[in-house]
Amino acid sequence: MGVIGFLALAANFTSVLLLMSYKDGDANVRSVWLCSRNDAIGNIAVMAAALGVFGTGTAWPDLIVAALLALLGISGGIQIVQQAWLELRRTARLLQHIAWPLVHFIPLDDAAFDRFQPGGRYKVKLRLCGMIPFGTQWIVTSLHEAEGSEWPKRLRDNGHSALIPKWDHWITVTPDPNGGTRYSDEVEVSAGALTPLIWAFAQIFYRHRQRRWRKLAESLASRRVIAAEMAAYHSAVQEGDDGTRAASKAMLLPVALAALVASPAFGQDLTLEEAIRRALTAAPQNASVAAQVDALKANRAAADLPPRPSLEIATENFGPPSDSLYDQFQITGTYSQQIERGGKRQARVTLADRQIDVAMAQAVVRRLEFISDVQLAYVEVQAAEAAIGVARERLAIAQGVATEVDRRVASARDPIF
Predict the structure, then answer these.
(1) Is the per-residue pLDDT at 390 higher than 70?
(2) What is the C-alpha separation between 169 and 187, in angstroms, rounded?
(3) What residue ranges are annotated as transmembrane (predicted)?
């Protein structure tokens, strides 16, 4: 796919990796900051490739760019994991979210349960499926970290109750070298004769928690790719998009330049970064991208559904009754259910996921191209301003000469003297 395509893909992968975080708290601010920083570096690399700096046919420049982007992604990913770890150990609302609807926790002390703290003790009532009482449980938290900033980070819940004397749960969080976060649950239970039943429940419960974590991460990544990586334009929505890059540039560039001219700060010094920010804020393409992603998500949800059964009813010999067995009224009902072979549904879901990834990658590439157009327009405006300054100086000189000539003519003096 060429050097430019490879760099665009790497920048998109890095952005998605950095957005794999949580919704609230400091992790959000940290994610947006890291995404903006890495996106800027990715833009520089892509622009350099477009100018032919890294497309000369030699291997080492491309290798250097790929290595720098990989290091950037790993560094940013580790920082995101650190912020996610802080949110994980502090925010009790996530516990309610990932346990729903199997288990609902009712804190006996709302203020104490608002945020987990290392060394805390929290007594809660348990409700299975939100309705069935399951007694009370003590949640006893403790933080176990290696010295310095070494991984892994571990959080322990050494809980217990009258029904379950021992519920020793360990959460381990580590960065994934391939991107993202490795999250694991380990639990040791002891409930006497009820231990096999509690063990079976724990198997179901923690698998459910893992699915909820993954869905939460996927939904946050999708929203933030649109909201943060695509700058959440929130501007007037313009209908119609023919999908071609040339038409997209022709439509977006005048809008961006108009936004710059109509800005309240017009007349002040405008930096390139500020020009890009204003142009992205006024760009109308975010709505179409969001609609496309929503449609692909709907297709993904449909692909995850099993084939529906069908029911057919046919009637024959409808009319007056007859004594002949061949002419009697008949009703025939047919019920059919398609049985899929193993893996077909997963293949459909995987295809739908890849289509979402492709749409997001294309959106990022269009954003990079749009930023390139804004940069070129900014350079042209700077050149035009310089030309205006030169023209004004020449005009002032010409006006001075004309004034002097008029004065000499009025005095009837020889122009030579």
Answers:
(1) yes
(2) 4
(3) 6-22, 42-60, 66-86
8-17, 51-60, 362-371: least confident range: 51-60
Q: Please report which helix (H) or strand (E) contains residue 133, including its range.
A: strand 132-145
Share above pLDDT 70 across residues of the chain, in percent, rounded to a whole number: 55
Asked whether the bond before 101 is cis by omega within 30 degrees of 0, the reply is yes
Burial of residue 281 (number of CB atoms within 10 Å: 0-12, 13-18, 19+): middle
Q: What are phi and psi of 101, to 5 degrees?
A: -100, 10
Count of Cβ atoms closer than 10 Å to residue 297 Cβ: 18
Helices (H) and strands (E) in the chain, counts: 10, 8
Q: Which of 12, 11, 175 is nearest to 79 (CA)?
A: 175
CA 64 to chain centre: 27
Q: Where do we find the tokens 């009532």?
A: 125
Cα angle at 200 between 195 and 204, to 5 degrees? 145
Residues 370 and 275: their CA atoms lie apart, in Å, by 12
317 vs 128, higher pLDDT: 128
As given in the structure block, the two tokens for residue 47 are 């622009």
18-28 pLDDT, tens digit per residue, is 544 433 344 44
Q: How many CB atoms lie within 10 A of CB 37?
A: 13
At residue 263, the pLDDT reads: 40
Give yes or no for a contact between 121 and 140, defined as CB atoms under 8 angstroms apart. yes
Q: Beta partners for 330? A: 316
What DSSP element (H or E) covers 288? helix 285-303
310 or 316, higher pLDDT: 310
The per-residue pLDDT for 237 is 37
Output the CA angle 104-205-350, nearest 5 degrees.
Answer: 115
- pTM for this prediction: 0.35
Strands 166-175, 181-190: pairing is antiparallel
Q: Kindly give the pairing relationship between strand 121-128 and strand 103-107.
A: antiparallel
On average, the pLDDT of the chain sits at: 69
